[in-house]
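Record filed here:
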Amino acid sequence: MTCPICSKPTDKSYRPFCSKRCADADLGNWIKGNYSIPSSNLEDMPESSSKDAPRFPQRH
């Protein structure tokens, strides 16, 4: 098994990661919202993602 962050072999102490650094990097990704689970349920979407909201910021 390899580390999902850097692809090095895993360490039993930090499995599924190879080190505390990679485990902390993964935690940071969760905290920042870099990971998400796709949903087609509109109730799961934040209000800012409504169908009326623009997909990209408007340029002036």
User: Anything to note?
Assistant: Residues 29 and 35 are 7 Å apart (CA to CA).
